[in-house]
Design a protein that fits this description.
The complex is a heterodimer of chains A (289) and B (326).
Chain A (H helix, E strand, L loop, with lengths): L22 E12 L2 E7 L13 E6 L3 E6 L10 E6 L3 H6 L7 E8 L5 H4 L3 E7 L3 H13 L7 E7 L8 H9 L3 E7 L11 E2 L16 E6 L4 H11 L7 E4 L15 E2 L2 E2 H4 L2 E3 H4 L7
Parallel strand pairs in A: 7-8, 7-11, 8-9, 9-10, 11-12
Antiparallel strand pairs in A: 1-2, 1-6, 2-5, 3-4, 3-6, 12-15, 13-14
Chain B lengths: L1 E4 L3 H8 L4 E7 L5 E4 L25 E8 L13 E6 L1 H15 L5 H7 L3 E7 L17 E5 L3 E6 L2 H8 L8 H11 L4 H14 L5 H10 L5 H5 L6 E7 L3 E8 L20 H20 L9 H5 L6 H12 L1
Parallel strand pairs in B: 2-5, 5-6, 6-7
Antiparallel strand pairs in B: 1-8, 2-3, 4-10, 7-8, 9-10
Helix pairs in contact in B: 6-9, 6-11, 7-9
Classes of the chains: A alpha/beta (289), B alpha/beta (326).
Amino acid sequence: MHDVLNSAAMGKLSAGRPLYVPFECIIVSVSDLTPNEKLFRLQVPEGKALGHLPGQFVQVSLLGWGEAPISIASSPTRSDYFELGVRRAGSLTGALHQRVAGDTIGIRGPYGRSFELDRLRGRDLLLISGGCGLAPMRSLIQYCEDRRAEFGRVTILYGAKSIEDTLFKQDLNAWETSAHFACSRTVDRAQAGGCYGGNVGQITSLIPPLTIDCAQTVAVIVGPPVMYRFVIAELKKKGLTSVQIVVSLERQMRCGVGKCGHCSIEHLSCCQDGPVFWLHEIEHLRGAL
Amino acid sequence: MKFLSAERIADFFAALATSFELRLPVMLPDGTRSIGTLEDGPIALQGGALDSKPTAVFFPQQEVVFTARDGEVPDTPLPARPLLVVGLTRCDLDCLRFIDRFFAGGWRDDLYFRQRENAVIVAVSGYCGAGGSLLPLAAGNCDLELVWDGSCWLVVPYSESGGSIADSIADSTGSGALQRIRTESLFHIDEGDAIIRRASELLRANRVPDSFWEEIGDRCIACTGCNLVCPTCTCFGVQDWRYRNVVERSRMWDSCQLAGFMREASGHNPMGSEALRSRRRIHHKLAADPERWGEISCYLCGRCDAVCPTGIGIVAVSQELVARFE
C-alpha cells in the first residue's frame, strides 16, 4: 500500500466535530483583488486559531449554496485571522462575493497536506505561481517572511494573464522591493502603449535567466493545470530533479476529507494525500499533471 | 444447532423488529426483490443476491447531512434502535467490509457510522440462490448466518449479538447439513475471480493501451447503472435544498461515468473523455484500490455485468482485456 495514506494533517478545530458540519467564522474585512477576485479576512470565534499550515485549504460553506474548497492565502504565523482569495466562478462564490464585513460564513477544515516546512527549511526556495495559484503560495511566502532566518535565498516568480488579472498587487510590490526576496512577475499580454513597463510573456520566460544552486534549491509550483508541464520542463533544464520540485494541484474537492471521489488521482485523494505533492510522488500517475 | 422452519421465519423477524430497525429482502408490489421493511412486502429470503446493493442501507442514494433551521444546525440525535440487516451474501459481506474500511480510513465518516456502528448483519447462504442453486457459506464477516439446507434455515452465530439472537430460538437440529454445505462451498469457484486478478495484474503493469479504453468508452452510454448497483462504489455529490427557513444539506451518489464528475470551476477536466472515464471505472477497482487498500475492490457480485445495457461490466471488460493483452 502506498506510503502517504492517512498522512494528511488533521486540523485541531475539526477534530471531534461532526465531519460535515461547518463552524461559523466572522468576516473581518473584504477587499478587491481584481474585478473578479476578492480577499476575505476571517476570524474563528473566541479568538481561536484556525490551526492551519501553508498549502492547506478549507471548505467554505454558505447554507443554501453548498460548499467549495478554497486555499488559505495567509500564513499561520499571522494567527489572529486567516485569509481566503476567492474568484467568482459560480453560484456559491457569487453569493460569497455579496458578503460583507460582519457577516458569517461556514468553514470546515483546515484540510489537506501542507507544504512540508521541515524539508524546505535551510533550502533556497524558488516559489513559482500562476493566476490564482498565488493565493496558497502567499501563505508560504508570508511564512518565509515571518521566519526569514529559517530559509536560504527565496525567489518568487509570478505570472498572470494581464495586469488587470494580477492578484495581490500590493504584496507583489512589497516583495519586489523587499530585501528578503528576489521577486519577478510577468503578464501573458499587456496593452501596447500602456503604462506597464514590466515583463510580458509566459511565466516560463522568467526561469532561464535565473542562477540556481541545484544542490540547495527546492522549487514549489502552484498554478493552473496547463502551467505545470512547461514550468517543470524549464526547471529540469536548470538541473532540478523530481525530488526537488513540489506541486500543489487543483481538483474539484467536494468533501475535502477523501470520501467523495471527485479529486482522485489514481489511488490518491488530492484533498487528503495532497493537494501538495513532491513531483516524484505523482509524475508517473495518469492524469496528475 | 438452532434452526427455523420456513413457517416460523415471519414470527422470528416480527419478534426481532421490536428491538431492531429491521431491513430484509422483501418482494415489492412491482415484483422486485429488494431490501425493505416488513411493511414493504412479504419476506423474500430465497432467490439469491438482490439486484440492488445492500450496502445502500448504510450509504443510501440520498441522505441528509444536516438540517439548518434559521441558520442554526442542531445536533442530530442518534438512531433510537440499531439496524438489523438481513440478506447479504458472502460477496456482499466482502463489499461491506471494504466500504467499512474506506469510510473509517483517514477522516472517519461519522454519517456512515451513525447507522453502521451498532448494526447487526445477518447473511444468507445455502440452497437459496436463483432456482435453488448454492449461495456459498459466508462463514464469518457477519453476526449471524441463515443457511437454507433445502427444508429449513440453519442458524449460525458468529458474534455476541448473533449468539443472543440464536439463543432466542427454541428448535435445534444436527449439524450434518451445514457440514455438507460447507464442503460444497469450498468447491464453489467463481471463474470471474481468476479473470479480474489477471486483469488487475495487466493494468498495474501498464500493459493496457489507451486505444482499448477508447473502444470501451465508445460503447459506454453513460447510463451510470454500473455505479448505481456497485456495492463498493462510494462517490457522492453534495447539494443544498432551500425551503422557507430551512436548508437541508444532502449527499447523494455520484457517478465517475458522467462528464462533469471531475470538472473544476476553472473548466479544467482531468477526466474529459469517455475513454478516461471508462478506464477510471475499471482501473479504480482493479489497480488503484489494490495500491491504496491492498485488495481488489470488486468481489464479483455480478451486478454491473447484469445491469450494463452494452455489455461492459467489470468482468466482461476484464475478459476482453485479458484475452487481448495477456
